[in-house]
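COMPLEX REQUEST
Ligand: pyridoxal-5'-phosphate
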Amino acid sequence: MIATEKLASVREQFPVTKRQLYLDSAHQTPLSLPVRDALYSFLTEGYEMAGPKPVWVRRVEETRANVARFFNASPSEIAFTKNTSEGLNIAANAVPLEAGDNVVLIEGDHPNNAYAWLNLKRKGVEVRFVPLKDNEIAAAKTFEPFIDERTKVVTLSHVTFHAGQVHDLASIGKLCKERGIYLVVDAMQSVGVIPVDVKALNISVLAAGTHKGLLVPQGLGILYVADGLDELRPAYIAMSSMLNPPADYIARAEDMAVRKDALRFEFGNINLPDLHALDAAIKLIESVGVSNIQKHVTALGDQLLSELDKLDVKVVGPRERGQRNHIYVLDLPVQKWADHFARNDVRVSPERGGIRISLAVFNTADDIKRLVDVIRTGLRETTAAAVAQVD
Ligand SMILES: Cc1ncc(COP(=O)(O)O)c(C=O)c1O
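STATUS: Structure written out below.
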């Protein structure tokens, strides 16, 4: 858990908390003061000194090492990308797949993952969708009936954006390892709010953006590619991907060997401002600890569920601890309730199953109380309107 004083000081770092009830971190993080300051110093260095780029590049490597530690990976297994979609598309085009091979996904999972693999249908790759209810957790047994000797990839979100399920990556990773199947994980909704140990979970490739749990603006992604998967070849390359980049900057067809590490998937200049922001964000997150953040948001979730029960409001996702984390989708009609929350200065997201509440390191028990008060008022208004209609 997060000690009360620490929570108060972290909350101070997020000015949005003084302006509105922010329960929308699964959509986009509000920026913190350290992240703003890191961006500001980068901009100052840019306009005062136009760099110096070697210093910026050195910091990128420091950030890579910090990100690697975050996932229990080594820095050689981390590439920086633009976003989750880019990482997933890199994976889809890197895995050696032939016509007749198949890839197994969850029906209704994030479309950015689904499209990356559906795009391979034109090469004759079969995409198999596993049906799953919003309150169900995907585990090895969910995938097993859909897997055969031509299955090359299992891919899914760690945490779902639309119902908040935390899928059982441990059993899925074990199954994939036993069967020689690549496990490709979209960790956009889990990174920064759930510890993700890529080694313990047997993840082959992990892709995530950084604008939710990693607390920085959009435009920077992280790609983990396990060491040793040399058969994964980049579809795009640039000088930075090459094993022997030519010192004279002249590309020669005789030497097309790409790097062995994940940097073979990183091409061209990358998002330097966001990388500076990410370094500050990781320090902030690590000052609390990801497992403490997880415990904190889960406890707020307990409080929310017990208050919702009193109001007879259901959630569409799972209720059990361990199966949920920071995303709770309330089974309330979206149109009416989105307006109601907006009128009351509560930032939430409309989702396919209802209204999505998402919790972060800076949210508190008082935030939940305030949310519950706003829901109670909305329910009263609905009852009053229904009575007036009957009269
Ligand atoms: C599970 C999941 N994957 C991917 C994305 C977004 O993809 P990208 O980072 O490419 O914008 C989101 C939400 O924005 C998401 O919830």
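REMARKS: The chain has eleven helices and twelve strands. The longest helix spans residues 365-390.
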